[in-house]
Design goal:
The complex is a heterodimer of chains A (113) and B (113). With 113 residues, chain A is an all-beta fold. In chain A, 0% of the residues lie in helices and 52% in strands. Chain A is built from no helices and twelve strands. In chain A, strands 2, 5, 6, 10, 11 and 12 form a six-stranded mixed beta sheet that branches. Chain A has a four-stranded antiparallel beta sheet with strand order 3-9-8-7, with no helix packed on it. With 113 residues, chain B is mainly β. Chain B contains no helices and eleven strands. The radius of gyration of chain B is 13 Å and the shape is globular. The N and C termini of chain B lie far apart (36 Å). The chains are: A mainly beta (113), B mainly beta (113). Chains A and B meet through β5 and β6 of A and β5, β9 and β10 of B.
Chain lengths: 113, 113
């Protein structure tokens, strides 16, 4: 079975600073990796996904993530955050057999002015 | 249409009530899902429908009863719920192929009194 670990439950950062949200996964098979964002009282919105190919994936709202197979990581980055990026971010891995998602516990990004 | 629409957005129900949550998508997705999300937690999978057939039931109590009338609609019938069932209920859909991402609805905020 797959599992996803998001090491930081909260990440405070000042506006216009860079940010990295960490995600590690465990799996013995090929996986597909995703980052979702959830704004307060909203559903989840797909930021980006890695299926294959280039290990650097670009998503919406200026976010990008790098797949590192040797370190089993898929960290999310943004070079300059805005107040509007304040939200909960979930990393997820897809089970290739059953199309089930396994979510990490989430990281609350708090952007301060 | 690239959305998953959930109704109602908010629902308050008593423990003896019967209510239903509705989910609709017109993207031609063949897999649909119900997730439950408690505050400050990741979504937890409840049910998966694939090609209108229930393929996964994550040991959900029988007071939750899913229904998939056609490929565009997914319902969740609720009966005799408990206060601890209060949560955000999220519907999602996917193409049902390996590596496909999910599209989430904005959820129904359920409060059981």
């Amino acid at each position: 079975a797959q599992s996803v670990t998001q090491l930081d439950s909260q990440v405070p950062v000042f506006e216009e600073a860079p940010v990295e949200l960490r995600c590690n996964y465990s799996s013995s098979v090929s996986v597909y990796l995703f980052w979702y964002v959830q704004y307060p009282n909203q559903g989840l919105q797909l930021l980006l996904k890695y299926l294959s190919g280039s290990t650097l994936v670009k998503g919406i709202n200026g976010f990008e993530a790098e797949f590192n197979k040797s370190q089993t990581s898929f960290h999310l980055r943004k070079p300059s955050v805005h107040i509007s990026d304040t939200a909960e971010y979930f990393c997820a891995v897809s089970d290739p057999d059953f199309n089930k998602f396994y979510f990490g516990s989430g990281t609350k990004l708090n952007v301060k002015p | 249409d690239t959305e998953v629409t959930q109704t109602p957005k908010h629902l308050v129900m008593g423990m003896t009530n019967k209510k239903s949550l509705k989910c609709e998508q017109h993207m031609g997705h063949r897999a649909m899902y119900w997730y439950k999300q408690k505050a400050k937690k990741p979504p937890e999978l409840m049910f998966v429908y694939s090609y209108e057939k229930l393929s996964i039931n994550e040991s959900v109590p029988s007071r939750f009863s899913p229904e998939c009338p056609n490929s565009s609609l997914l319902n969740l019938h609720l009966h005799a719920l408990q206060p601890e069932d209060s949560a955000l209920y999220l519907c999602a859909s996917s193409q049902g192929v390996i590596g496909g991402g999910y599209t989430f609805g904005s959820g129904t905020r359920l409060t059981v009194v």
